Amino acid sequence: MINNWRRHVKKRVFTEHLVWIHNNLRPRVFDGSHLDFPGMNQALSLRQYQKDAVWRGMSSGNTLLAHVLIDEAYYFKNLETPTKMERVAGIQPGGSERAFDVYMKAHYLDEQHAGHGVTFATGTPISNTMVEMYTMQ
Prior knowledge:
Blueprint: H1 2-22, H2 48-60, E1 68-71, H3 97-112, E2 118-121, H4 130-136
Parallel strand pairs: 1-2
């Protein structure tokens, strides 16, 4: 009877100890149900997990919500290349405004979050000039 009681007490103490050690950490919960999105199209409604993701981004700032993916990046490869050389094949004297706009935005994001923030994706290989390769690096 006493051995049975000791076993029961040891089991309870051991169980309480394990619960205290392993259950003392609780992951942070992000509840975005209180958020209001003024200016958002009224025909659209966000799901709860989307509101939670927005609140997580606003609270912690450590998410990929600030990451930019630029697909079909070959549309933006015609960037002006400053050079003193004249009439060199493949170097265009002027670039497109679209390419310059993306360049400035990517440069700004790199200043804010060095080495993070922009990914260029394209299925079109670099085939025309070294300037394209330099632009897309």
